[in-house]
Amino acid sequence: MSDVFTASNGTKIETSEKYGGLEVTSSEDFDYLLQKHVDALREWFRAERDEELGRWRDPESPDWVVYPMNCYEDVRYIRVMNERDGRKFIIRENELITGASFHEVAGRWFAAHPVRKPWHDARPGEAWVITIDGYEWAVVMVRSESSGNGLFASGDEAISITSPRITAGRRVWAPDEGDDDE
Asked: Would you tell me which CATH number, out of the four given (2.30.30, 3.30.1340, 3.30.500, 1.20.120), belongs to the domain 118-179?
């Protein structure tokens, strides 16, 4: 890009050696932006465009973007693309390989976008049967934590409703519904 860029509305943006940022001029006025503000604005506009296009940008490797693919209900697929060179890969959630940069990006996307489970919506007072480490436990959702997550309790034991140790769960009773055979 040249040192002077003219936007479609006539505003000129010029690299400023004097201020170490950008000089923005139009027919009405001008202003200077420091380099740190230019960098922040670039990130903000890129994040805005990423959201608009439905893509996620990897915070550790920002040249990589991920597009979720809604192919199947029971298996998640994503398209991982390197914007610098155009390479793209389709990755299935349970087929991640360590060592390949695009698989590492995919792993970070899946970690940042966990599948919401039915027990994540448990409300205080509901009774649930949950599976933890292969064993079923009868529990009650007792309260919400400050993080917005709830806690399941049984006796003097408690576990966050979002714990990855919970692999299955079904509500067996809700206080506002009386007996519930779900």
From this structure: 2.30.30
